[in-house]
Design goal:
By secondary structure, the chain is of the alpha/beta class. It is built from 13 helices and 20 strands. Bound molecules: guanosine-5'-diphosphate, 6-O-phosphoryl inosine monophosphate and magnesium ion (MG).
Length: 426
């Protein structure tokens, strides 16, 4: 299976990093196609934990080439810090390639992210504060800075100046200090020579690799319900984590993609604001947060926790054309007597089976639960389907049925090998 997309089906942090890393050991390329360092993907290899933000999962597999595609927004300071961190831990990052079309997060887009959140007050999005939204906004408004602009000093200075003409007026009106165009340009240019050797024609390289029968993984950041088009707008990120984003974010056509793998937690978490029908408040939510160690990799924020949401899973299956699901963190549910699964919503007195098209309806959605029996045991040592307790198997088979997608891999712990593979993905 040469081209495989791996993406989130819920509100992020499903375990995409671990799934990508596992498959990355057998892939020739791992390509990040959207988002930036708002992502926090945790990979654990032999007890050593690697939190990846901008670097694709394949960076930890020898023989795999990691690529940052044109759909990504790159904070150069963060990029080089992450590279230095990995190098200091004895990891080779020299294979990394970056698209010249990727947009650059600037000091002013970072500032504007925080200003916008402050201005929204109680209606804030709860962003990661990394400058993601304003950088994509500049891209769409055609005033963005791209990696390739770093290699033409006069163009870069011109672009920074015209972008700042608008932004500085806004900043000053909010009582903030304006940015000095020359200083911003100098800061960005200071990275040019370090980034230059990484920049290649990634569109050509990836398509050639597929022509040669190589295996290419596309690693999504964020998730379906955070997608700018398909998520819980406006409580979303500013890119397309869904399957189409893998094509627009890399220049690989949809007909070349063989598999679309969705990653789902055996329950659901969310960071930041916005609707979350199965969210648990009080003791049950606390229990899940502690059992699953649900604290953000990027911001350290406690994650909101809730039960598995089947309408959301079916929505993700539909929107992405999923061929497979990876269900992670099944081990976390081992302590429960009964496990509720949301099978439908009640919205203003009506029973609704699917994620509604109207956001107002989704904000009013109350979960309708079916309860399954828990297995009450530690499954973190299981490596084969037959080793799972019958009730854990029944839970997975139930999720498979209500999600309308086959479950090919089951995660039973954070380590690379803590997984049960029912169907090979590459
Ligand atoms: P991502 O953003 O989708 O890559 O996910 P994160 O790394 O933000 O969050 C997932 C967390 O769950 C990380 O701490 C992983 O190490 C951990 N994890 C992944 N799969 C499993 C699993 O099957 N069981 C357990 N217990 N932890 C897992
Ligand atoms: P990974 O790839 C979970 C959320 C933020 C906020 C919203 C918008 O690790 O799954 P942004 O900074 O992107 O403008 O914030 O999206 N968010 C994530 N939540 N996991 C992520 O990434 C996220 N990236 C952004 O919390 O609600
Ligand atoms: Mg994460």
């Amino acid at each position: 299976m040469p081209a495989v997309i791996i993406l989130g089906t819920q509100w992020g942090d499903e375990g995409k990093g671990k799934a990508t890393d596992q498959l990355g050991t057998r892939a020739d390329y791992v390509v990040k196609y959207n988002g930036g360092n708002n992502a926090g993907h945790t990979v654990v290899v032999d007890g050593e934990k690697f939190p990846l933000h901008l670097l694709p999962g394949g960076i930890l597999s020898e023989g795999c080439t990691p690529v940052i595609g044109g759909g990504v927004v790159v904070d150069l300071e963060v990029l080089f810090k992450e590279i230095e961190d990995l190098e200091s831990r004895g990891r080779d990052t020299s294979r990394l390639k970056i698209s010249a079309n990727a947009h650059v997060i600037t000091p002013y887009t970072r500032k504007l992210d925080n200003l916008s959140e402050r201005t929204l007050g109680e209606r804030k999005i709860g962003t990661t504060g990394r400058g993601i939204g304003p950088t994509y906004a500049d891209k769409i408004s055609r005033v963005g800075i791209r990696i390739q602009d770093l290699f033409d000093e006069s163009i870069l200075r011109q672009k920074v100046s015209s972008a700042l003409e608008q932004k500085n007026r806004l900043l000053v009106s909010y009582g903030e200090e304006p940015f000095e165009p020359e200083a911003v340009a100098a800061e960005l240019l200071s990275y040019a020579e370090r980034v230059r050797p990484m920049v290649v024609d990634t569109v050509l390289e990836l398509n050639n690799a597929l022509d040669d029968g190589k295996t290419v993984l596309f690693e999504g950041g964020q998730a379906t319900m955070l997608d700018i088009d398909f998520g819980t707008y406006p409580y979303v990120t500013s890119s397309n984590p869904t399957a189409g984003g893998a094509c627009t974010g890399t220049g690989v056509g949809p007909a070349r993609v063989d598999r679309v793998v969705g990653v789902a937690k055996a329950y659901v978490t969310r960071v930041g604001e916005g609707p979350f029908p199965t969210e648990l408040f009080g003791e049950e939510g606390e229990w899940l947060r502690e059992a699953g160690r649900e604290y953000g990799v990027t911001t350290g924020r406690p994650r909101r926790c809730g039960w598995y949401d089947a309408p959301v899973a079916r929505y993700a299956t539909r929107v992405n054309g999923l061929t497979d699901l990876v269900v992670t963190k099944l081990d976390v549910l081992g302590g429960l007597d009964r496990i509720p699964v949301c099978v439908a919503y009640e919205i203003d007195g009506r029973r609704v089976m699917e994620v509604p098209a109207s956001q107002t309806d989704f904000h009013h959605a109350r979960p309708v639960y079916e309860c399954l029996d828990g297995w009450k045991s530690d499954i973190s040592g299981c490596r084969a389907w037959e080793e799972l307790p019958a009730r854990a198997q029944a839970y997975v088979e139930y999720l498979e049925r209500v999600s309308r997608c086959r479950i090919s891999v089951i995660g039973v712990g954070p380590e690379r090998d803590q997984a049960i593979v029912r169907h090979d993905l590459v």
